[in-house]
Amino acid sequence: MRGLEESNEDVIFLLLETIRASTSEELFLKDLRSLSLTSRYLRGVCLPIIFRVFRRTWDMTVRKRQEILPSTLCQYVTVFELDVSATGDILADEPTDLSEQLATVFSNMQRLHTFRLMNSAECGPWPALLKAIFITPTLTTCEIWDSPWRRPEEKFSRMILDLPREYSRLQKFVYRVPFTDCFHRKSESYGRRDRVQGSVELSNLMVLTSLVCDSVEALDIPAELAFPLAEFRYPKLRELTVRGHEPRQVFDWSVIFRNAPQLRDVHLQTVATERSMLQPTPAYSIGSDDPVMRGMSNLESLTISNPFGKGLFLSALPYANLGTLSLKPFPPSDITGARWSNIHARVPTSSEILSILNTVQIASLSTFELSYRVDPADLSLLARIHSSFPRLAKLEIHRFRPLAKSNSEDDPLGSMPNILAKVANIQHLRLNLDFPERPRHADWRRQDDSGRHREFHSFLENEIASTFALAIPSLRTLGILSHDAFSSYWDTWEVTKTRGLRVIPQPLEACIY
């Protein structure tokens, strides 16, 4: 048998990735560290995987060290994450020593392409840190997650950044702060920005956007601040994502195509509020040769979480290339944790979704995702899907039964499988059927809870999944959303040629809806 040193390195990597898919990330990295100590050869194989994504939590113990990461290991880092959630009052003022250390360590990371700042409760990214990021020659992605600027003294200008030259290499820029804690939970403005924070954030984002607008290909920004930022020219922008509350002023989102002619993926993940639902839809008088119409006809993926005020997007347009359309509300249930518990997505009714589909026919669409609350138009909506999207291959439905107390109320099995069978090319189906009688809050240490869950999962496979597999001849895979006490995940089956079901194991990290 050949020794490990004589084996193809790609084979070793494939074996490691197979192990990664079947275990948790923490346990996988722990096993890799142990494996790297067994031989020099395996150390050389494991280190690039261990340090490929490197996260440093910044606290007092790190401040006392000479270096953030030994220079011999810097060569393996491609993604650097700085988590400052446990700093206490360390970041009350600009931490100059941290900026200097980061600039030094970045200069040794010859493969670094992504920097991510996370969970800063004290302040947003400060000028010295941004300068260290922007002058890193290999960096193509800068992401800022839940680290907002809050105070007027945090404002900076292009001159304060003191960059040695114009920066034009950044391909992806993310400022992901969809909700804030400026207002009390009981306030109608809860989750929104107040005037001070909004002014600081917008001022700094205008500076950064002016630096990257010529090169950026993917942009992710808060919806509340998107209106002024849309005024920049984005000649290379292909993917735009906005998240959070709708802007207070009436905003026609379709104008983004005037300044971004290369847009292919647009994700408008905004919260539907009573105010946004009452906003009048702007009047449109756009010719077919207008840049907006030409841009929309080139779209490949479109997400609209709040359909109100998006009339032009949802009218009958020549979507020649659109492959994916999502009408799932924002925020999804898995991210509305304790901090954002008062921010809930408004799920549209069957009638509201049907009114959208009645104006749309997209022959190129292959993937469609929707969420709706059952009302008398339920069956009409399902029947409309195959005529609106004749080539649909992937379908994801989240169907909610308001006030249902038992699985028999508005039972989907009566007609749903046969109606979806009319979608001639459907191969992959995912269903969230909102079972009121599913077991809740299981304690796996209690035998009765464990037994109830096994019984319910058997019901999902033998009564629900089998019904759809038998009714839809073209189906290849089927997923049904299941819920435990603290997570949601997909039970997924492969449909065999005999219309039987074979369980498809899911990675632990791929369990969230």
Please characterize this protein's 3D structure.
30% of the residues are buried. The protein has helices spanning 9-21, 25-36, 40-50, 60-63, 71-74, 96-108, 127-134, 158-161, 195-212, 226-229, 256-259, 274-278, 291-297, 311-314, 350-357, 378-388, 416-420, 447-471, and strands spanning 53-57, 79-83, 114-118, 141-145, 172-176, 218-222, 239-245, 265-271, 301-304, 324-327, 367-373, 394-400, 428-432, 477-483, 488-495, 501-503. 31% of the residues lie in helices and 17% in strands. Helix 7 (127-134) links the parallel strand 3 (114-118) and strand 4. It has a domain at 1-50. The chain has 18 helices and 16 strands. It has 513 residues and is α/β, with parallel strands linked by helices. The chain starts with 8 loop residues before the first helix and ends in a 10-residue tail after the last strand. The protein has a 16-stranded mixed sheet. Residues 334-339 and 508-513 have low confidence and may be disordered.
